[in-house]
Amino acid sequence: MVCPMPVIETKRALETKAPREIEVVVDNTTSSENVKRFLISRGYSTSTTQENERYRIRGVLERALEDASGEKAEKLLVYVDGDTMGRGNDELGRILMRAFLKTIKELKNMPWRIIFINTGVRMVSQESDYIETLKEIECAGAEILSCGTCLDFFKLKDRIAVGRISNMFEILSSFTEATKVIRP
Q1: Measured between alpha carbons, how far is 123 from 7 in angstroms, rounded to an integer?
Q2: Which of 54, 5, 1 shows the shortest CA–CA distance to 167?
Q3: Element of type H or E holding 36
Q4: Assessment of whether the complete model's pTM goes beyond 0.85
Q5: 19-68, pLDDT tens digit by residue?
Q6: Are 54 and 83 part of one and the same domain?
Q7: 107 lies in the same domain as 49
Q8: Quick one: 45 and 111 in the same domain?
């Protein structure tokens, strides 16, 4: 199945059957990682075995999804869809983006996730001038996700220097889970 279908089918299985244990079989590393992350996000511990070109992801439900207090933790999402900030002059846009990212490090509440799509994925590649700042943000606790389709399109999948590769299902789910979204 093509991304994001393995995650969507896994989600459907969880919603319709609510299993304590599940096993998902996929035929590529990316799908294996995506399904594993999805299961973990739903409270499952996971283990993966590889047999030839088949990956078996076994999930065992470990915890309920809701916080015992019933309170929803603040989840600040930063959505970056380009490698410049604002419209107009690209040189100025890169200066503004650099300042934006450096300022994120100074925030009282660190973003939960920073998602890069479209030309924004150039910012996580090895050639990017933003890598050190993004690594500092990641070390401070923000999860950095980049669209796998976008990385493929720009031929950057093997050049990612910070964060991890994601998929459209996880990106869309991040928007629905976020309590606040910022777009530079």
Answers
A1: 26
A2: 5
A3: helix 29-41
A4: no
A5: 999 999 999 888 898 898 888 878 899 999 999 989 999 999 986 555 44
A6: no
A7: no
A8: no
